[in-house]
Amino acid sequence: MGKTVVGEEAGRKFGMVEDISFITESGELMNLVLREPTKHAVDTNLQSDERGRFLVPFSAVKSVGDFIIVAEKDII
Questions:
Q1: What is this structure's pTM?
Q2: CA-CA distance, 34 to 1, in Å (whole number)?
Q3: Predicted local distance difference test score (pLDDT) of residue 10
Q4: pLDDT for residue 4
Q5: CB-neighbour burial class of residue 58 (10 A; exposed 0-12, middle 13-18, buried 19+)
Q6: CA-CA distances (angstroms) from residue 56 to 11, 50?
Q7: How many domains are there within the chain?
C-alpha cells in the first residue's frame, strides 16, 4: 500500500496503491486499486470499481520494489 504505480514502457505514473482486490476463497490477486490517479491513468481509460476508483489488473504487474512496475500494453 502507498507504493507508486509506474508504466514499464514510458515510465509514466498512474497513481498510488490504495488497496488490493482479491478473491477471498482462493487468495488470487485481481486488481490494484489506485488513489490519487494521475492524468495518464485517467487518459488510459482504466476500469473502475463501484466507488469510481481506478483499477490496474494484477496480471499487468511486472515487478514490485520501491515502485510497482506495470506493463501498459497489458492494461490498454
A1: 0.88
A2: 10
A3: 87
A4: 97
A5: middle
A6: 15, 14
A7: 1
3-state secondary structure of 28: coil
> What's 51's domain CATH number?
2.30.30.240
The C-alpha atoms of residue 47 and residue 42 are separated, in whole angstroms, by 10
- Residue numbers of the domain that contains 11: 4-74
pLDDT of residue 45: 82
- Section 41-70 average pLDDT: 93
Res. 71: pLDDT tops 90: yes
3-state secondary structure of 25: coil
Distances (CA, A) of 53 to 10, 25, 42, 59, 62: 23, 23, 10, 18, 21
pLDDT, average across residues 22-42:
94
Residue 70 corresponds to which cell in the numbers above? Answer: 506495470
